[in-house]
Amino acid sequence: MLCALMDNSRLTASQLAITAGLSPQSTSNHLAKLIHCRVVAFDKIGRNRYYRLYNSLIAQAIESMMVATYADNNFQERLKPSGFKKMCYARTCYDHIAGHVGVAIYEHLCQQKVLETAEGNLAISTVGDTWFSTHLGIDVNALSHSRRALVIPCMDWSEQSYHLSGELGAQLFSALLNKRFILKTNEARILTITPAGKAFLQRSLGIHNIDDE
């Protein structure tokens, strides 16, 4: 159930029951415990409750546990040719982009000094302020007022390397969606990179290894 909510979606108890293969009663019991522990929250709309992860920190904790689960190299090789291939290529991780594409974006942002390490912490460089404004229309200074950390390196379970999280990661994902460089699919968490998106990544970041899923 928690993995089903990792794309920052809001699902009913019935939808979660089907996803997890549980009875309605068992699902209700699990949700009650998760709500009590502040892992899951819900929004009530009319008569329905729509469940979601409590916050981005919970999503980060779930991703960290998945990193440990899939850390074995042999398992990685078995995973990628399987039905998880699309998931490994590009997916949502709560409100930011993960998988092969997400990691490639993060690595190239670092290589081009858009992101840099300052006093042991990852931060946006002066070059980065201009880059995000010019290429994606993101006002980095406006994001600094957010209570959420601006830049967070999030360990990717399928790539065993970092992708970009934090407020900037969320805004980057939103901008790529709005420009239709990436698209959500009917499959939970799975993303598609459009031809325009691949051209943008090649032009703006020099990413040439975004193979088809």
Compact description:
This is Transcriptional regulator. The protein is 46% helix and 20% strand.
Report on this model:
This is Transcriptional regulator. This protein is an alpha+beta fold. It folds into two domains: 2-54, Arc Repressor Mutant, subunit A (Orthogonal Bundle), CATH 1.10.10.10; 84-205, no CATH class. 46% of the residues lie in helices and 20% in strands. It contains ten helices and ten strands. The chain has helices at 13-20, 24-36, 56-69, 73-79, 85-89, 99-111, 126-136, 140-143, 166-178, 195-205; strands spanning 40-45, 48-53, 91-93, 96-98, 115-118, 121-124, 152-156, 161-165, 182-184, 191-193. A two-stranded antiparallel sheet has the order 1-2. The protein has a two-stranded antiparallel ribbon with strand order 3-4. Strands 5-6 form a two-stranded antiparallel ribbon. Strand 3 (91-93) and strand 4 form a beta hairpin. Helix 1 crosses helix 2.
Compute the average pLDDT. Answer: 88
Q: Over the alpha carbons, how many angstroms does the gyration radius reach?
A: 18 Å
The best one-word shape is globular
Assembly state of the chains shown: single chain
Specify the number of helices.
10
* Helix fraction by DSSP (H/I, runs of at least 4): 40-55%
Question: In this structure, how is the largest beta sheet organized?
Answer: 2 strands, antiparallel
Pattern of helices and strands: HHEEHHHEEHEEHHEEHEEH
Structural class: alpha+beta
Strand content: 15-25%
N-to-C CA distance: 25 Å
- Please tally the β strands and state the result: 10
* Model regions low in confidence, pLDDT < 50 over at least 5 residues: none
Q: For the largest sheet, list the strands in their spatial order.
A: 1-2
The tally of domains stands at 2
